[in-house]
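Lab notebook, design round three. We kept the backbone fixed and only want residue identities now. Task for the bench partner: fill in a sequence for the structure below.
Input structure tokens:
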């Protein structure tokens, strides 16, 4: 398995892995939004994206932000008027829960109060289903941590939903500790030095 940075030509496959493994708000909003997200994340200087390849196939990825408050703004800015109309339809037809969106906004607000300044965070991490539990997620996080240490960054954060027990167990196994719990979301932190 090879770990190397993603380039723009990987955005389609990265989006498909994200869409099929993560049921976060972006996935619930549709594959179109997820594709827009990866185009931005891969080309934006505030982030780095690493992929894990088996031969020529991308099978997992991690995206890390140097400044998560800016990443939240970037993500909110992805939605065009037609996206809002599509999302409204999803809410009206019960495919997307307004409560879930509300909870996410409340959680983001709690995190902003807890961490008002610039902080580094994992934005997305996903391993294709059939490759999970083979140490690939761990390798991606460890590689990302090495990169952050080179930049003299002292802490890495990540958030997940409290019902994502797999992710919680994964982050705890790497040494992340829970620092905040609010509106169905959990913020974890690891010291890098
Ligand atoms: C969470 C995720 C990234 C973990 O990646 P992975 O490559 O499967 O994890 P690893 O094989 O590196 O696991 C490392 C350790 O994490 C823990 N862990 C991983 N998956 C676990 C699971 N399903 N249940 C319990 N513990 C788990 C274990 O302690 C594991 O060590 P072990 O296998 O020696 O027991 C992966 O399951 C995934 O992509 N899930 C869907 C997307 C997602 O939820 N991403 C996180 C969003 S914040």
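Proposed sequence:
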């Amino acid at each position: 398995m090879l770990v190397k940075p993603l380039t723009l030509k990987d955005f389609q496959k990265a989006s498909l892995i994200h869409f099929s493994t993560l049921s976060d708000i972006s996935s619930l909003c549709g594959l179109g939004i997820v594709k827009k997200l990866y185009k931005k994340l891969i080309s934006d200087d505030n982030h780095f994206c690493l992929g894990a390849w088996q031969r020529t196939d991308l099978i997992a990825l991690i995206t890390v932000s140097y400044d998560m408050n800016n990443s939240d703004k970037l993500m909110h800015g992805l939605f065009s008027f037609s996206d809002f109309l599509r999302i409204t339809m999803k809410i009206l037809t019960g495919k997307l829960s307004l409560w879930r969106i509300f909870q996410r906004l409340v959680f983001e607000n709690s995190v902003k109060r807890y961490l008002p300044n610039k902080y580094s965070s994992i934005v997305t991490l996903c391993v294709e289903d059939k490759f999970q539990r083979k140490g690939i997620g761990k390798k991606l996080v460890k590689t990302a941590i090495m990169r952050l240490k080179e930049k003299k960054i002292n802490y890495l954060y990540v958030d997940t939903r409290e019902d994502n027990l797999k992710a919680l167990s994964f982050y705890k196994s790497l040494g992340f500790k829970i620092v905040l719990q609010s509106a169905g979301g959990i913020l974890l932190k690891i010291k890098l030095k």
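Keep this in mind before ordering anything: The pocket of coenzyme A is lined by residues 21-22, 125-127, 132-138, 158, 160, 164, 166-167, 169-170, 173 (CB under 6 Å).
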